[in-house]
Each structure stands twice: as structure tokens, then as C-alpha cells.
Write a structure and sequence with these properties.
With 638 residues, the chain is mainly beta. It has a domain at 248-335: Thrombin, subunit H (Beta Barrel), CATH 2.40.10. It is 1% helix and 42% strand. It has one helix and 57 strands. The strands form 14 sheets. A five-stranded antiparallel β-sheet has the order 1-34-33-32-31, with no helix packed on it. Strand 21 and strand 22 (246-247) form a beta hairpin. The radius of gyration is 27 Å and the shape is elongated. Mean pLDDT is 88; it is low at 1-19.
């Protein structure tokens, strides 16, 4: 496969003015972005908005109609996804959020949150709606079936009979709040006229194959008019309170995938539909016909649409876009920092350049995270796509390698242009390592795209690219798919360290032959002491950190002060080499005793999961963390 060189996309992602770092506390630095899957507005305070993110991003709050956003997660704990948001009808500082761990309530507009106990909700909460007219009234639906209602802001709950199916969407008639509608997992849509005590199916006019209904919307001016949609079919409109439905999909294509719907509160003629691949569509005739909505929508992956008095808002894969002219034009709000960073690397230039890759986009900062630009990656079609591993060559900060299906792309100018560097048919790399002594030697592992090439998946999973020559790395085991190389000796390129079947292997002849170095440790990564290459540290799959003082022949394991969970990443202070940092999923730890003992280091990581830590190469007093849901986070030491 050939990859065509592309120019860098010089989009400056300017962050809001950053508060000074609090020494010893991790803070989000960006880049802006995050998949927004839930939106809510305060009915009595239209400029106040809330956005819920997938992937552990948490909740963000805006008080200026979506122009800027601030983090609002204190008390939410380590969230996976914020599935739903609702704001109390009369008290705009009372907000509800549903996550995969339960229901939370804030009475401070998102400044702090407390968990709300809901009986029998261990399977999770799928849908939530606050009564638009009655303060304190909220409904939730449980994964697996059942609806709960509360009239006192979640302090006590009543179990409702509910439809005989899992409910995925709820809607309330704003003029007759005892009338509710429920979209279900597999049996269509239901209606209750007595506050949820009894339900009847209302599917007249809906095609029999439409059983999943995850999206409902009611016209706030004419609540007898409502809309529903199902993936691949719809939307449907009813103008008699669900008595009869008509498909209204003209302009949306043959199999429209509408995930969210909203009716303009100012005019019943304007209806909006959000799609996961084609952006927002707008109808100006009450849903009868649709057209793509506006220009400037930065991301066509739309997970949620919200029509409020302050404008129209789209929750996209990269943040919240706002329109003040009924979806004709869009602007992206600033400050949502909820990306999940797959790769984080820092070069040795002055100032250092930070590269962050989220699995689809590559970002770069030359200001220690204050501002970010997005780089354009090589374009590849079909199954040939970016797989994620990223590496900066240690002796040339302008050289960057990034993994592609069946190829590795290289930039020699800091990410501005790219070209194919090495190619290996069917390779799916998920790990990439450059020989610190020779930029033309790379090691990669991951697997084979057998669906493309029809090859046996056990053929090989680890490769060496040596000045254009490709070879498979194996030990002597007949069942081995290959040895993923964890490290190259910085003083001797012929000495390789690899792991397979929970054993540490060593090669003294550049991978031609291998021997088991240790069967006692299960390393996930290796780092060398920069002043003595015989001193090696290993992060362990079980828990703890291992240290070798003789080039890996013998190891001492210490977990003193570390939790009983895998160590994901290690970093060593380049000046004070007895100081190390270890990251688990939940926290970062420091050792000042060459790994003998450890203690928690820094605060502010309760809501995110840590993937990797990196020390600033020019200022060891600054640490960076690649996180799930928090983007790149920075800590300045005390």
C-alpha cells in the first residue's frame, strides 16, 4: 500500500485561559474534544447547558449558551460514560446525571455531585427525564426493565409497572405531565395516561420491523405532535398523541440512521434530526421533508441534538456545536476536554513538542499543552487505516512513526508531511518501537488482518523492519506467533528484550535467536536508567515494579505502597535517577528509592483512567498523563 504525503492541517485549538497549575494536582490541558452523547438545558436559565461525554469524559457546563465549557465532575467518581442529563424545571442548579455506575444529583449546578440510591438499579440506568412543569419530579428506566419515579428529587422512589420490555427512551407531555411515552428495546413505543401506572402499545402505522425505539421527541407547543426514530428506519411522526404514525423520511435517504430528534421551541415547523455519520438534518415543514443543516458543523458524527431557547446544539464526536440561526451555521464551543488518548509522546526540542493521538486524530502542542494544533494524517481508504502506535525517534525529534494497517507512515518534519516508511502485508500494528541507535530499524507487533488477506492468524504477530527488509520475530516455540519487543538496549542494538506467554526473553544477536531471561516476572514495559544501562525497570502485569541491576539477569520485585493492579506505565527522572513514577489505571505513584517503596503522587485523577505517563524532557518537574476521558493532563511538582 502506498500512502500519499499530506500537509499538516494548521488548525489552532486555542484553549480557554488556563488557571495556574496547582502544584501537586493534575489538571486537564487539552486538546479540546470529546464524544458528547447527552445534552440538557436549564428551562428557567436558557444559557446554562450541560454536556455528558462518552469514554469517561464526565460532565461539562456552559453558562454562556455553549460558547465555553468548564468541567463539572467533582463527586462523579471514575465514570465510563454519562448516558443522560436532566435539569429540574424550576431549580436550574439541580441537575441529574446517569452513568454506567448509577444516578448522581447536583444541587450546585454541577460544581459537586452526590450518588443517588435507586432500588434495583445495579444493571444500570438507560433513560431519564425530568418533568418540565413539576419541580422535583424525575423518571428513570432500568436496564433489564422497569421504570422508577421520584417526586422529591431522587430521595425516594416509586416502582412503576412499565411496558413489558426494556425502555430506551422517555418523553413527557409538557402540558399534561401525567402523559408519558416510552420507546423500548424490542417492542416499539408505549403510552401512559396516568403517570406511568398503566401502559398501552401505540404502533399503528409503524412498520412491523421497527421494534427498537431509542429516540423520542415532543413538540413543546403542540404536544399531540411527537416523533420517534429507529436505527435504519424512520423517523415517524404522530399528530394525534401516538394514535397513528406516518413515516416522514423524505430527504434522509433509504435507511436513515437517526439517533436523536428535537423540535424548535419557538416554532413547530422546525424539527431537527441527528445522525451518526451525516450530521444534522433540518425540516422546515414539521418533519415532512428534510435537508442537511447548515455549514461549519465540525464533526458529522452527531450523537444528540438539543433545541433550547438559547439555540440549537449538537453533541458530536468532538464536542458541542451551537447554531443561533436554526442550523444554518455552526460554531464549536471551547473548553470540552474529554478525549481518550491512545498514544502520548514528547520530543526533546526547546520547548518540547507534545504529540497526542486519540485513535483518529493527531494533536501537537509546542506550549506544554496551553495551545494545540491538529495534524492531518495520511489518508487511506477501506480497511487501510491508522491503528494508533506512535513513536518519536530519540535522536531526531523531527522523525515520527505512526502505525497503519499494512504499513508504517513516517514524518521527517514533525508531522507536517507523511509518507509510507515500511510496509508489511496484512499487519495490524498496536505497538511500535524504534531502535534508539538506528532510525531505519523498527519493531512492531499486533496481529494480522486475516479478513483482508485470508491468512492464518497464527502466522506471525511481531515484525522487524531493518532498512527495508521485513522479518518475523520468533522464539524456538513451534506455537509462537512472535515476540513483541519491549525494549532495545540503548547501548547495544543487538540486545533485545521481548515478552511472550508471560516470560521475558532476551536476544543478543538482533533477534536471530532468543533465550528465556526470566519466568518470574510478567512485564508490560521496560525502561533503562539513563546513566547505567545495566539498571532496568519493568512494570508488571500483576502488580508492582521489578528492578534489575545486571542487565536483566536477576530481578527484585517491589509492590510496597502500590495497589494490587497492573502497572501500566513507568517513567524515570533523567536527573535524579533514583526517582521513578508508576501509573496504574487509578493513580500515579512515586518512588525516591529506586523502586523499593512507593507512595501516591498528585491529586485530581479520581474521574479518569490513566494510560501512560511521560516526564517533560527539559523540565523533570513536569509530568504528563495520557488518560481515558481527560485528554492530556499535566502536573507541576511542588
Amino acid at each position: 500500500m502506498r500512502i500519499v504525503s499530506t500537509l499538516a492541517l494548521s488548525i489552532l485549538l486555542v484553549q480557554p485561559a488556563l488557571a495556574a497549575d496547582v502544584p501537586g494536582r493534575w489538571t486537564r490541558t487539552g486538546p479540546d474534544g470529546g464524544a458528547v452523547i447527552a445534552l440538557a438545558a436549564a428551562p428557567s436559565r436558557p444559557a446554562t447547558l450541560y454536556a455528558g461525554l462518552a469514554g469517561g469524559g464526565g460532565v461539562f457546563r456552559s453558562v454562556d449558551g455553549g460558547a465555553s465549557w468548564t468541567l463539572a465532575v467533582s463527586g462523579l467518581g471514575r465514570v465510563v460514560a454519562v448516558r443522560g442529563l436532566a435539569v429540574d424545571a424550576r431549580q436550574p442548579d439541580t441537575v441529574y446525571a446517569t452513568t454506567e455506575t448509577g444516578l448522581f444529583r447536583s444541587t450546585s449546578g454541577g460544581v459537586s455531585w452526590t450518588a443517588v440510591s435507586v432500588p434495583e438499579s445495579t444493571g444500570g440506568i438507560l433513560a431519564m427525564v425530568a418533568d418540565p412543569g413539576r419541580p422535583g419530579v424525575v423518571y428513570i428506566t432500568l436496564n433489564g426493565g422497569g421504570i422508577r419515579s421520584s417526586t422529591d428529587r431522587g430521595r425516594t422512589w416509586k416502582s412503576l409497572t412499565g411496558p413489558p420490555d426494556t425502555v430506551r427512551a422517555l418523553a413527557i407531555d409538557p402540558m399534561t405531565p401525567t402523559t408519558l411515552y416510552a420507546g423500548t428495546q424490542s417492542s416499539g413505543v408505549y403510552k401512559s395516561a396516568d403517570g406511568g401506572a398503566h401502559w398501552k402499545v401505540i404502533t399503528r402505522g409503524i412498520h412491523p420491523t421497527v421494534t427498537l425505539v431509542p429516540a423520542l421527541a415532543i413538540d413543546p407547543r403542540r404536544p399531540q405532535t411527537l416523533f420517534l426514530s429507529s436505527p435504519g428506519d424512520g423517523p415517524y411522526r404522530s399528530m394525534d398523541g401516538g394514535g397513528h404514525w406516518t413515516k416522514v423520511a423524505a430527504g434522509l435517504g433509504d435507511h436513515p440512521d437517526v439517533r436523536s430528534l428535537a423540535v424548535d421551541p419557538a416554532t413547530s415547523a422546525s424539527v431537527f434530526a441527528g445522525t451518526p455519520q451525516n450530521g444534522v438534518f433540518r425540516s422546515v415543514d414539521g418533519g415532512s421533508t428534510w435537508r442537511p443543516a447548515g455549514v461549519g458543523l465540525p464533526d458529522r458524527s452527531v450523537n444528540a441534538v438539543l433545541a433550547a431557547a438559547s439555540g440549537l446544539f449538537a453533541g458530536t464526536g468532538t464536542g458541542v456545536a451551537a447554531s443561533r440561526d436554526r442550523a444554518r451555521t455552526w460554531t464549536i464551543g471551547r473548553g470540552i476536554q474529554g478525549l481518550s488518548i491512545a498514544s502520548l509522546e514528547i520530543d526533546t526540542q526547546t520547548p518540547p513538542r507534545i504529540y497526542a493521538f486519540d485513535g483518529a486524530r493527531l494533536f501537537k502542542s509546542a506550549s506544554r499543552g496551553v495551545n494545540w494544533s491538529r495534524l492531518t494524517l495520511p489518508q487511506a481508504s477501506g480497511v487501510f487505516k491508522t491503528t494508533g502506535p506512535l513513536m518519536i525517534h530519540p535522536s531526531d525529534p523531527q522523525k515520527i512513526e505512526i502505525g497503519f494497517t499494512a504499513s508504517i507512515a513516517q514524518s521527517t518534519d514533525g508531522g507536517h508531511t507523511w509518507a509510507e516508511h515500511f510496509g508489511a502485508p496484512c499487519l495490524l500494528p498496536n505497538f511500535l518501537l524504534v531502535d534508539p541507535n538506528d532510525p531505519e530499524v523498527l519493531y512492531t507487533s499486533g496481529g494480522l488482518a486475516v479478513e483482508v488477506c485470508g491468512l492464518d492468524p497464527w502466522t506471525c504477530s511481531s515484525f522487524k523492519f531493518d532498512h527495508g527488509e521485513v522479518s518475523c520475530l520468533r522464539d524456538s516455540s513451534p506455537i509462537s506467533r512472535g515476540l513483541p519487543v519491549l525494549a532495545v538496549d540503548p547501548g547495544a542494538s543487538s540486545h533485545l528484550f521481548a515478552v511472550n506467554f508471560l516470560q521475558l526473553f532476551h536476544s543478543a544477536d538482533a533477534g536471530a535467536t532468543w533465550s528465556v531471561l526470566s519466568s518470574e516476572i510478567q512485564p508490560t514495559a521496560l525502561i533503562f536508567d539513563p546513566t547505567d544501562r545495566n539498571i532496568i525497570y519493568a512494570s508488571l502485569l500483576t502488580n508492582g515494579v521489578a528492578r534489575s541491576g545486571d542487565g536483566g539477569v536477576t530481578w527484585q520485585v517491589s509492590a510496597a505502597g502500590l495497589p494490587a493492579e497492573p502497572v501500566r506505565s513507568l517513567a524515570i527522572d533523567p536527573i535524579h535517577t533514583s526517582t521513578l513514577y508508576a501509573a496504574t489505571a487509578s493513580a500515579v505513584y512515586r518512588s525516591t528509592s529506586s523502586g523499593a517503596t512507593w507512595a501516591p503522587f498528585g491529586t485530581g485523577l479520581k474521574e479518569v483512567t490513566v494510560r501512560r505517563i511521560v516526564i517533560d524532557p527539559l523540565d523533570p518537574g513536569i509530568l504528563y498523563a495520557a488518560t481515558v476521558g481527560g485528554g492530556v493532563m499535566r502536573l507541576r511538582m511542588e
